[in-house]
Amino acid sequence: MEEVVLVDEHDNEIGVAEKLTAHQNGALHRAFSVFLFNSKGELLLQKRAAGKYHSPNLWSNTCCSHPRPNEELVSAAHRRLNEELGLQADLKRVFSFQYKVAFDNGLVEHELDHVLIGRTDVLPILNPDEVSEMKYITPEALQADLALHPEQYTFWFKALLDRVLDVYTA
After folding, report:
1. Active site includes 140?
2. What pTM, to 2 d.p., does this model score?
């Protein structure tokens, strides 16, 4: 059973819950989103696996997940990068934001999401249980595709992208 850390709006821990239960109840919990760029300035995107219980088959940022109880945020991000993509990268925490979205399947994503940025030129090794495809894409091509096909991207990715690109290019 995988657990997530429940938090208040200031990221103070207030408990733990089973991951699926937290998403069924819409409980605010801690999460992270990793954005990896290569030396050409291209962003590494992942397409979520078909078996994911929400947002399957949608393009999203390089990696996103939840720290486990008593797990430090950056350590959790490193763990998930390795589990999903066989990657390691230096990560810098750049900002946090809170969002809440209900999905068609009745689940609710309510997260205090910590955004981390890093750089790598290493090619990922996909874990097919988590990721079906990967691609590097320039910010310009990504923004053009997002404008044409917003339904092909996760909610949180669309909410984060402009702010991430502002921080990355600053």
Report:
1. no
2. 0.95
